[in-house]
Amino acid sequence: MAPAKVEILIPHEQIQKRIAELGAEISAAYGDRSIVLVGVLKGSFMFLADLVRHISCPVRIEFIGTKSYEGTTTSGQVQLTKDLDKPIQDEDVLLVEDIIDTGLTLTYLLHVLSQRQPRSLKTVAFLDKPSRRRIEVRGDFIGFTIEDKFVIGYGLDFEQRYRHLKDLCILVP
Ligand code: IMP
User: Fold this and answer.
1) Catalytic site includes residue 90
2) CATH of the domain at 10
3) Amino acid 72: pLDDT
4) Per residue in 43-86, pLDDT tens?
5) Binding site membership of 91 for ligand 1 (Cβ less than 6 Å)
6) Residue in 101, 136, 170 to alter for ligand 1 test, most ligand atoms within 8 A of Cβ
């Protein structure tokens, strides 16, 4: 099989600029309240690492893992692959997602986490692909809104590859 060509959709510098803005928006929204950032594995790891450096309020970091994709298509079923280490009751929780696509994962996670009685529960997503929604759900803070293209890099994968790329890219067959 010929190696796939990778094209840059959003370069690293533009990503960093937007993340600094998002960090400022989040810091202003929470003031000096402490927040629990819940990174959704694996896709959000790079976004969370960059974002947290622009957040000025005190933070605790947790991770939760989900799985729904096989290749470039969603199975439609969301599974938890890793749970939080500590309770989030009475905490201000900010869920950190790589991308809101069909909306199934976010809807599932908001349901699971809200049952644990956080004080507040909001979402920041690096990317939003609203044209693909199968269920009505919105992020509170969004990095970039993109068209219906399968993207890789900056934490996002195709069959567990390409997560390490510093730019957001698309695969060209
Ligand atoms: P959902 O369809 O909104 O449930 O998206 C669930 C997950 O699918 C996201 O958190 C991503 O990890 C993955 N995903 C959705 N679209 C893409 C994409 O374009 N590239 C890579 N992963 C994606």
Assistant:
1) no
2) 3.40.50.2020
3) 66
4) 999 999 999 999 999 999 999 999 886 666 666 788 899 999 99
5) no
6) 101
Domain region containing 102? 5-25+33-172
Query: Helix (H, G, I), strand (E, B), or coil: what is residue 132?
Result: helix
Decide: 118 and 127 in contact? Cβ < 8 Å.
Answer: no
Number of domains present in the structure of the chain: 1
pLDDT tens profile 150-166 = 999 999 999 999 999 99
Catalytic one among 50, 98, 101, 128?
A: 101
The pair of structure tokens assigned to 33 is 């309240």
Ligand 1 atom with least separation from CA of 100: 3
Does the Cβ of 45 fall within 6 Å of ligand 1?
A: no
Residue 63, SS3 per DSSP: strand
CA dist 113 and 95 (Å) reads: 9
What does DSSP say about strands 73-82 and 59-70: parallel, antiparallel, or unpaired?
Answer: antiparallel
In total, the chain counts a number of residues equal to 173
Report the distance separating Cα 128 and Cα 2, nearest Å. Answer: 30
